[in-house]
Amino acid sequence: MNPTSIATVSLSGDLAEKLAAIASAGFDAVEVFENDFLTFDGSPRDVGRMIADLGLRIAAFQPFRDFEGMPEPLRARAFARAERKFGIMNELGAELMLICSNVSPQALGGIDRAAADLHDLGALAEKHGVKVGFEALAWGRHVSDYRDAWEIVRRAGHSSIGLILDSFHTFARRSPLGPIASIPGDRIFLVQLADAPQLEMDVLSWSRHFRCFPGQGDLPVADFVRAIEATGYKGALSLEIFNDQFRAGSARRLATDGVRSLIQLADQIEPTLPPRAHCLGVEFIEFALDEETAHELANLLSALGFRQTGTHLSKAVTRWSQGGINLVLNTEKDGFAQSHAIMHGPGVCAIGLRVADVGQAMARARDLRIPSFEQPVAAGEMQIPAIRGVGGSLIYFTEPKGDLGHVWEKEFVASAEAQASSPALLTSVDHISQSMDYEEMLSWLLFYTALFELERIPQTAVADPAGLVESRPIISHDGAVRFVLNGSQAQRTLSSRFVSEHFGSGVQHIAFDAPDIFAAVDAMRAAGLSFLDIPENYYEDLEARHGLDPEFIDRLQEHHILYDRDGEAEFLQVYTHVFAQRFFFEIVERRGGYSGFGAVNAPVRLAAQAREARPVTVPRPLREL
C-alpha cells in the first residue's frame, strides 16, 4: 500500500487540532494548506516541529496559484512570491510545493511559454533544495487537462518539476484514464484523491462543496488508482477534500473516515482484507428501557402481535417474537444498555445482524479501524461479538453455525407462549431507519458499505414541514437487510429533533413486513392499537394519480394505509404513533417486487407526525370572534 496522506483543508478546526487528528488516525503524511499555516500563531519551524513530533512528514505545501504564463511585471512578481514560499518550506521541512494551473484572466496561453516558466522555476527550486508539482485544475484558464499539464512538465525538462494528478479534476473533465499509463512514475510527484456525487452543476461549485472520501461518492476512484499503479508510482496517495459537511464535522471522526476510505480503496484494487460481511438478516433489535417504559412497550408489542417468548437466564431481559422477528427488552440496572438509556432515553441500543461468518466480519472491522465492544458476562453466558455503531449503539454478530447460531436456546428460558402456533401478522424486519447529524451521514455510509455487502440507493430529499431531510437507503442485494440513513440541516425537522432532544443519533423507526397488511391492521385494531391519522386529501389525490379502484381507495383510507406504485409493483405502509416521543414502527407490504421505501409518501407521514407532536388549532373566521 502506498503511503497515506491528507490535506489539512479536508478537516475542521485549527492547524494543531487537524494535525493531532491526522496523526491519531494513522496517516503517514500531511499536505499543509497555506491558509491553515497563515492562521497558525507560530513560526514555520514551530509547525515543522509539531508535525515531526506527531510522527508525520509533509507531503506538500499548497496551493501556489496563478503562476505560469503571466506577462511582465506579473511574471517577476510570481517568481518573487515563489522564492518566499521556498524559504518558508525550508523552515517547515517541506520538500514539495503544489502549483495549480493558472485561472487569472491575465494569464497567457501556450504550452511552450508555461514550460519555460516551470523550467526557470525548477532552477530556483533546486537552489532551495525543494521540488514543484504542477496540477491541472479542471477550471484552469489555459490548462485544465492532466495531459496538457504533463506535456508542460515534460517540456520543462527539469528534475525539480513534476506532475500532480488529482482524481476529481480528471473525472470532472471526463478525461480518459488510459494515457496516464504512459507517464513515468518518477515524474509524478503526488497523487490526490477525492470522490464526489455525480451532480450536474458548474465544476468549481462541485469541487468546492461536494467532494468526499473514496467510497462515499459516485466516481470510479479505484479505476483512477489502477491507472496510477500502471506508471510505477510509489509515492503518497493523498486525500484533498472540500466539503461543507466535513468543515462542520469532528476532525478526529473525519480523519478516521479518511484512513478507512483508503484501506477499503486499496482492498478494492488488490484484496487483502477479509471479504465484506454477507448479511443474512436481522437477528434481533434490542431496546434499553426503564421498567415503566418496558411495560408500555410490551403492551404496544402485544397489540402488534408479538408474544413474550423467552426470559434471559440471569438478566432483566425478555425476548419478544413474531414470525422471524426478535425484539429484546432490556431493563438491567447495570451494563451497556443502562448507560445507553441514561444518555439517550428509551430506545434501540443494539442491533443483532446474522452474517455468514462472524470471524471474518470482526476481522474486517478491525482492519477498517472500527472499534469492537466487550462487557463482562456471567459464568455460562455467551460473549457475542460486537462493534460500535451509530450514536454509540452496538452491532452484534450471530451466524448459523456453532454456538452463535443457538443464542436463544443458550441465553434464554423459553416461555409457554413460545410454543403457541398462531399465524404471524408480521414476518420479518423490512428496514431500520437511523437518524443522525447531517454531517455524519457520509461517515456512516462509508462505515456500512465498507464493512458489509450493502449497496447504496440514490439519496433523496424529503420535505418535512420544518425543512428538508436527506434520506439515503443502503440494502443487501437480496433485501435481507435494509438501512435508511436520515439527516437534516434544518434544526426543527423530525429527524433533527430526534438527534438533538435525545442526545445523539440512533434508530428512529423500524419497519416490519406483513404478508397481508389489511388483515394485520384489523387484528391490531382489535387489540386496541390505533395508527397515524392520514388526511382525506391524500386519498383524493391518490385516486387521481394512480386511477385506483374507489373501493380500494376507501379501504386504504379506512385502514390509514399509504400507497405507492412503481410500474406494476406496489407498496403499502402504515405507521404507529410515536412511542415515548422517541421512535415508532412501520408496517409494510411489498407486492410484485417493489424495492423502494415509499419516498413519495414521506412528506405526508412527516406532516401527520408533526401535527400529532404539536396539534394545530384552526383559527375561527373573524365574523365568529
Structure explained in plain terms:
This protein has 625 residues and is α/β, with parallel strands linked by helices. It has three domains: 4-269, TIM Barrel, CATH 3.20.20; 279-419, 2,3-Dihydroxybiphenyl 1,2-Dioxygenase, domain 1 (Roll), CATH 3.10.180; 428-613, 2,3-Dihydroxybiphenyl 1,2-Dioxygenase, domain 1, CATH 3.10.180. The strands form three sheets. It has a nine-stranded mixed sheet with strand order 14-15-16-13-9-12-11-10-17. A hairpin with a 5-residue loop joins strand 15 (386-388) and strand 16. Helix 5 crosses helix 6 and helix 19 packs antiparallel against helix 20 (550-558).
* Overall geometric form: elongated
Q: Quaternary arrangement of the chains shown?
A: single chain
The appropriate CATH architecture of the largest domain is: Alpha-Beta Barrel
Number of helices: 21
The assigned structural class equals alpha/beta
Describe how the helices and strands are arranged.
Layout: E1 4-7, H1 15-25, E2 29-33, H2 34-38, H3 44-53, E3 57-64, H4 74-92, E4 96-100, H5 111-127, E5 131-135, H6 146-156, E6 161-166, H7 167-172, E7 188-193, H8 203-210, H9 221-229, E8 237-239, H10 244-248, H11 251-269, E9 279-288, H12 291-303, E10 307-312, E11 317-322, E12 325-330, H13 336-344, E13 347-355, H14 358-367, E14 372-373, E15 386-388, E16 394-398, H15 407-411, E17 412-414, E18 428-435, H16 441-451, E19 455-456, E20 460-464, E21 467-475, E22 482-487, H17 494-501, E23 506-513, H18 517-526, H19 536-546, H20 550-558, E24 562-566, E25 569-575, E26 584-591, H21 602-613
Parallel strand pairs: 1-2, 1-8, 2-3, 3-4, 4-5, 5-6, 6-7, 7-8, 9-12, 13-16, 18-22, 23-26
Antiparallel strand pairs: 9-13, 10-11, 10-17, 11-12, 14-15, 15-16, 18-23, 19-21, 20-21, 21-22, 24-25, 25-26
